[in-house]
Amino acid sequence: GAIDEGQFEASTVLNMTRWQALRYVVIPQVVKIVLPSIGNEVINLVKDSSLVYVIGLGDLLRAGNIASARDVTLVPLVLVGIIYLLLTLILTFLQKRIESAFSYYR
């Protein structure tokens, strides 16, 4: 697997219980390995949720044309886009901070 069996053997030599070995040796290494993937999935989920919403609403373009014909501005759509951008930037920033906290070999 991703964690070498020698890690468990070393924890046994250090007289750790199985739960202590998991808590102090294995889980920190597993978190470091899977953290980038989980962070990317969270960011993709935020991005894809808006994409699926737009694709799912086939009448959105027609509603946009009707709204622009009535001289309605696109400010609400721009604000929603800005909110998604800010949300994605914040999640990306948090992911990088968490990854840097776990990158103890760099």
UniProtKB/TrEMBL annotation:
PROSITE patterns per UniProt: ABC_TM1
SUPFAM superfamilies recorded: MetI-like
Entries under CDD domains matching the protein: TM_PBP2 (cd06261)
Record field: transmembrane: 74-94
Mode of membrane association: Multi-pass membrane protein
Cell compartment(s), UniProt: Cell membrane; Membrane
UniProt keyword annotation of Zinc-finger present: no
Primary site of residence: membrane
Family that this chain belongs to: Belongs to the binding-protein-dependent transport system permease family.
UniProt protein name: Amino acid ABC transporter permease
Keyword check for Transmembrane: yes
Pfam families the record matches: BPD_transp_1 (PF00528)
Assigned keywords, A-Z: Amino-acid transport, Membrane, Transmembrane, Transmembrane helix, Transport
GO biological process: amino acid transport; transmembrane transport
Organism for this UniProt entry: Lacticaseibacillus paracasei subsp. paracasei Lpp123
Domain ABC transmembrane type-1 as annotated: residue spans: 1-95
GO-annotated cellular components: plasma membrane
